[in-house]
From TrEMBL:
A GO cellular component entry from the record: cytosol
Protein name as annotated: Hypoxanthine-guanine phosphoribosyltransferase
Biological process terms in GO annotation: GMP salvage; guanine salvage; hypoxanthine metabolic process; IMP salvage
Pfam families: Pribosyltran
Listed GO MF terms: hypoxanthine phosphoribosyltransferase activity; magnesium ion binding
Lineage: Eukaryota, Metazoa, Spiralia, Lophotrochozoa, Platyhelminthes
UniProt keyword terms in alphabetical order: Glycosyltransferase, Transferase
Annotated source species: Fasciola hepatica (Liver fluke)
Amino acid sequence: MSNRDGYRGPVVLSDDFEGYSKHEFRLSPRYAKFIESILVTRGMVQDRIEKLALDVVEKMECRGVNSLTIICILKGASKFGADLFQQLEMAAFSKGRNMTFHMDFIVANTYVNDKVGHETHLRVCSDPGKFRNRALLVVEDLVDTGTTMHKLVAYLKSLSPRYVEVAALLVKRRPDCPSFQPDYIGFEVPNRFIVGYAIDYNDHFREIPHICAVNDEGKKHFAVKE
């Protein structure tokens, strides 16, 4: 998948990719025994975000857009959103472009333990009326079933923005679910339960710097009663 704007699709982790040994990288002793493997290291995440930022800025140039509002989905995308925001500013500066970037937030939640719930709850953290005629980039940590993204993008489009695009750090391959294809994807990953880099499991594992797969012991240990 490629286009003239520079974005060439995600980095794909195959289904038979077992990941890197957790013993080869720094992990908190609190979580180490609950991690199955490391799928994406912190360094790989940062390099990929830098490239995504360049792709976004290049597409803004093609469209004649000088201002972009980043809508970060809390809490999981908080770190991705902050790092992407910084890299967008750096990319625009390196190209000598006078571009401005703004950050806004939406709270969304569908998960209970390791399952995706039937209802998606959205809460905008500021006046949604200000999105009218604005270029919007939704920033999501992980697209799983696509339920949240379908609902959120439809809602944002109803506010009459200039356009709405989505950047996701991770997209799971889920042949059992209707697909949602973000405009920018960092990594396409196997269907495993993923944590780290601010992605949580019942508010645990957020502080791990890498993208990791949780083992069955970890799911059980940190599960909450429904």
